Amino acid sequence: xxxxxxxxxxxxxxxxxxxxxxxPIVFFLLLVSLMLxxxxxxxxxxxxxxxx
Length: 52
Fold this sequence. Notes:
elongated; mainly alpha
């Protein structure tokens, strides 16, 4: 599985390099991408795509 290993690598990078300021950015990007994937094909899709 590629995604869990990538998340593990990202977490290890954040811990080792003390780049804690990147964590909220990564979380927000994951949240937005999840929202776009889940809302695709729904009634809300036109409203979400107008935001971006």
